[in-house]
What does this fold into?
Amino acid sequence: MKNIIILGDGMSDYPVPELNGLTPLDAAHKPAIDLLSTHGELGLVKTIPNGIQPGSDTANLSVLGFDPSIYYTGRSPIEAVSMGINLESSDVTFRCNLVTLSEEDEYENKTMIDYGSDEISTEESSILIKSLQDKLGTDTITFYPGISYRHCVVWKVGPSNFSLVPPHDILEKKVKDYLPAKIGDSEIIYNLMINSISILKNHPVNKSRIERGLNPASSIWLWGNGKKLTLPSFKDKFGVDGAVISAVDLIKGIGICAGMKSIDVEGATGNIHTNFTGKANAAIKALDDYDFVYLHIEAPDECGHRHEVENKVRSIELIDEFVVAPIFKAMQKYDDFRIMILPDHPTPLSLRTHTSDPVPYIFYRHSNSNIINGSGKNYTEKNAAETGVYIEHGYTLIDKLMSKDDK
It folds into this structure.
């Protein structure tokens, strides 16, 4: 039995005035997804447990069958694993974004212009992170380069009781009310952020970016702190080998922690310009070697954060045309296969951040050439709610996919 989850990060949304009261899922032309929805099970699932902050970290753990309330230790240690950083149990890690802030003299008066510095290239950002390590790194604090604007800081034997805000949650807001406290251990984090300004301001990389009309990486922003993650083996839990395909270190890290194979795709990014066809082809090939594939696509989430209405609709259409359709066609060679499609969480355009609302899911099962009775409905948030199918504990959703019961 071949099984695949196709996850469109942040696809779910609220009705949007720019779309005449429709959601992006309503507005998108997505014949392949709608075919699977009408012939499969359609329902809602709550991926974020009560009392837990909505994020791709907690939500993807849930979709992969791991209860976030038990296993979640923070976002950045998951990304650190994907980056090949060897962590000790006493280490504390932080996501280190290269961000663009406005140009006021006082840090507190600056505004968050761009949480990813115009999606700075990995080549440029690696040079900047090296400069930050040379100037700000110590025996206990180390900067590690990642991909694009996403990097990592590790504090050896560090404290972990910080309350830090993701930069994508405060776009176009003054940073004053979202900075670490200037007392105790938090002051060290605060000073790292403040001191990064002088290092980055006149750096040749940033001068070049400004000359090319691009946002400079004017500061670091530290968040997502946590300690080393330990997960049960996916194979031990479900009895099959699995592979994960994603452009995002966070998702790769979850897969690696669960003993899954992380497959890289050339040209894969975390935005609408990703290599959709390459990801689909990688998934099709992986299904020959693995009984479970987790294919993660970040594009709708990024569009939600940036309030790019047309791009969010378009990203869903691209997923449909270049990912879902070819994968469904390729899987016809198997007598038995299952496909699940869902977002991890909503990223409403109106809010530009994640919410904990239940998300619509599709479960399509093709077994011995017999298709299960379907919902008869296209894939939208409203239609999913109208089915009355609701899964309270998101980490149990995968049991439908991995069940040996074909009835």
